Amino acid sequence: MKPKQNPAAGVPIMDAEVIRKALRRIAHEIIEGNPKLESVVLAGIPSRGVEIARRIAAFIREIAKTDIETGVIDVAMHRDDVGTRKELPVVHASKLPVPLEDRTVIIVDDVLYTGRTVRAAMDAINSFGRPARMQLAVLVDRGHRELPIRPDYIGKNLPTATREQIQVRLQETDKEPDGVWVEKE
User: Fold this and answer.
1) What is the domain extent for residue 115?
2) pLDDT of residue 119
3) Does the pLDDT of residue 7 top 80, yes or no?
4) 9 falls within a domain
């Protein structure tokens, strides 16, 4: 089922139930791909990536009866365009369980586009230590990569035109019902 049409938001793609199912599937895939769940950390990129990480951790707790640590990894000062922006980026506090050595850090974000935010997240994580490995989980992969970055866990592949935008709304971060829309610029 698709979210109700919101003319300002564009074409509806995913509603709350579809998002829930996608995140539950990602949780199952993380369980299958990581036999040592106790060494996994879900690191959400603010703001929606943090909530998506919390939801995935809750599904893992429900399915595997194991608590997964979550954290926040801010990328604002690690972006490659930080010096070229007209405005200073909004910086959030990063918080990861340390030490990271011998741990798998799964970066979690809402939309994967060029890969530059993920590269910044990897740099930020490395400032906390050197994890055994890093993986990537995204709700939506829209294509158009500029860097050789590929997600390990994907809620939905959604090829888009470069002039389109993906809008993700989550109840906890946006005070709106969960949904994903495509809108043209």
Assistant:
1) 14-79+90-161
2) 96
3) no
4) no
More confident residue, 90 or 61: 61
| Number of residues assigned to the chain | 185
**Distance between CA atoms of 159 and 178, rounded to whole angstroms?**
21
CATH code: domain of residue 30:
3.40.50.2020
The total number of structural domains in the chain stands at 1
Residue 173 lies in a domain: no
- Give the pTM: 0.91
Short-list 170, 134, 181, CA closest to 153: 134
pLDDT value at position 15? 97
For residue 40, give the nearest of 94, 85, 102 by alpha carbon: 102
